[in-house]
Amino acid sequence: FDQWQPKASLKYDISANSMVYATIARGFRSGGFNPPTAVFPSVYRPETTTNFEFGTKNSLFDRKLTLNAAAFYIQYKDQQVFILNVADQGIINIADTDIYGLELEAQARPTDRLELGASLGLIDAKIKDFDGTDLYRGNRVPLTYRWSYTLSGQYTLPLGGSSLVGRVEYSGKGGNYWHVDNAARQNDVHLVNARLTWNRDGFSLAAYAENL
């Protein structure tokens, strides 16, 4: 399988600290072969995307505050989806999918020692055409989270010739379905992660915990 993957971008600097951009690009993933089975096709087709993205990046207050935003639209053709059917498993293609998304990000450095961050992602991904019929039309694309967010805080404590950095992250995501029929939905996921790092003369030692 082969495909051209062109990309074009346009950027405009509003000021020394603010810019806007637009991008259009073609994405490609090769097709492949399923194990011999009466359930799945022997060959699944390659998938292609046409991606449109518009965004802005801004650095404010002497770079103590960063604000970024991006909106995107993806036209998905022959999206590959993994299917588990009792003892058989394989990959099928969804003929046509539309994906709309929005991403927001903020990073703040109120002091030299303190860093704060926040991000939000929203995705609306629906099946436009599964196989040329009304089957699964309007269902959400599996394994795609409808919303996600992250909150983080980091503080650096000087210790003579070394430093101690503590970081905590709180994240959440939800709206995910496991399969194209949307019969099973994953519960919303909320996680707290933490990390403590000691730095000295180019060396570091860290302890971390996930899903506190």
Q: What do these coordinates show?
A:
- With 212 residues, this protein is mainly beta.
- Helix content is 0%, strand content 67%.
- It contains no helices and twelve strands.
- The strands form two sheets. A ten-stranded antiparallel beta sheet has the order 1-2-5-6-7-8-9-10-11-12, with no helix packed on it. A two-stranded antiparallel sheet has the order 3-4.
- A hairpin with a 2-residue loop joins strand 11 and strand 12.
- It is globular and about 70 Å long.
- The relative contact order is 0.11.
Task: Describe the structure concisely.
By secondary structure, this protein is mostly beta strands. It is 0% helix and 67% strand. The protein is built from no helices and 12 strands.
* Uncertain parts: none
Structural class: mainly beta
- Count up the helices: 0
Classify the beta-strand content into a percent band.
over 45%
Query: In which range does the helix fraction lie?
Result: under 10%
Numbering strands along the chain, what is their spatial order in the largest sheet?
1-2-5-6-7-8-9-10-11-12
How is the main sheet built?
10 strands, antiparallel
Distance from first to last alpha carbon:
44 Å
**Number of E strands:** 12
From N to C, what is the helix and strand string? EEEEEEEEEEEE
- The geometry reads as globular
What Rg do the Cα atoms give? 22 Å
Mean pLDDT score, rounded?
Answer: 95
